[in-house]
Amino acid sequence: MRRYGVHLNALRAFEAAARLSSFSQAGNELNVSHSTISHHIKGLEQELGVKLFLRENRQVTATAEAEKLFHVLQKSFDEISAALEEFPRNQSLEPIKVTVTPSFANKWLIPHLRRFRKAHPEIEVQVKPSLKLNDFVSEKLDIGVRTGLGKWPGLSSQHLMSVTMTPLCSRSYLEEKGGKITLDTISESTLIHADVIPGTGIESEWQEWLSTTRMSHVEPENNLSVQDPGLALLAAKDGLGIAMGYLELASVEIAKGELIQLFPTVVNHPWSYYVVTPENNIGDIRVTTFCEWLKDEVSKQLVPTNS
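The chain above was modelled as a monomer; its predicted structure follows.
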């Protein structure tokens, strides 16, 4: 009997694609990109010397040869899963390592993490805040949450949530300004913003917001620049000025009345939050569980506003 040099990840990708009739849905289930699934299928077809799928529009259909392999694999994976369930949970497993920006860790992940620990006490999580885009291989990272356009070399990304922004300040700062701040008087305030990385196509977050108003541009008396959007919110909360705040990160402070939304105008940031994982990271149930939990938590979140 010939021994094929087929990687297990390729077989998992094939089984999921055949079962779901979709490369995209298979990628979502395994937390990898559509192109990663396609790459695995192409390699498997070359190794086996047969066509495995018929592609029609956005759906794929397994060929007769593929159906035979699919049923064998599905039964095998089910049997493997059943056998693994017989083993006691191994509490000594290495924790999954999650890299996030400091602001996302402080304002979103840590406040929500208690629910994950309650639902999955067998999975230990190690949170590693960092402003840089870490090297997943050298640092042995499992999952990341990053802001950007969704494309990073060597990483699969899934959209987690959009970023919406609007000016926010503390109640004390608003009272200091006479209880009212308008577009005509906003230049008399200190405008707080997170530094934008040069070359990203974003002139400034304040400019993005102002471009949707009749002002389009203002020259404030004072500016305060910080490196992280979480620090911008903290500065606004402490009464240092008006922050261009991310509503997704400021929801708790807004709900408590610690930050006030000054204007009804809310704009979408050009970037979004994405869950990223190494492209070759298929099959770690802990990673899949955490990624699914992240997406489920975001789907429950409503962004409160007040004025």
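The radius of gyration is 24 Å.
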